[in-house]
Amino acid sequence: MKRPNVLLLLADQERQRDWLPAGLELPNRQRLIDGGLEFTRYYTHTSPCSPSRGTLFTGQYMPVHGVNENCIEPANGELGTDANTLGKIFRDQGYYTAYKGKWHL
Fold first, then answer.
1. Which residues contact 5 (CB under 8 A, 6 or more apart)?
2. How much is the pLDDT for 103?
3. How much is the average pLDDT of 38-44?
4. What residue spans of 25-85 are helical by DSSP H?
5. Cβ count within 10 A of residue 12
6. If you write DSSP's letter for every residue of 23-40 in order, what string do you get?
7. Are 79 and 54 in contact (CB under 8 A)?
């Protein structure tokens, strides 16, 4: 069986769709929604961005992965380079992995 391609897109500052002005068309965004997987019951144990990303990428709770607050200077906890992330897990299974964009970990 051929392995599926996996593309994980994270958007920052997303809100419910109903806040968009009437008549505004975002065809690429809509195409992603129509053809992708949308999590409608996603819960997080922390609201700040960086700790939530740390949990998503490692599957660990905030006290374990160590990203305690949003990453600002000086850093208030960073994700260690030895952390077992989704990217490393996929790579170990033979996938080509890449990360582009905002890291904040």
1. none
2. 77
3. 75
4. 27-35, 49-58, 62-65
5. 9
6. T---HHHHHHHHHS---S
7. yes
- Tell me which range, 40-44, 51-55, 71-75, is most confidently predicted by mean pLDDT: 51-55
Amino acid in the structure at residue 72: I
CA separation for the pair 75, 38 (Å, rounded): 32
b or e along 23-47 (b: 16 or more beta carbons within 10 Å of the residue's beta carbon)? eeeeeeeeeeeeeeeeeeeeeeeee
Other C-beta atoms within 10 Å of 55: how many? 18
Which segment of 11-15, 36-40, 53-57, 91-95 scores lowest on mean pLDDT? 11-15
End-to-end CA distance of the chain: 35
Distance of CA 1 to the CA centre of its chain: 27
Q: Is the peptide bond before 48 cis (omega within 30 degrees of 0)?
A: no
Could you list the active site residues? Answer: 49, 104
Amino acid at 8: L
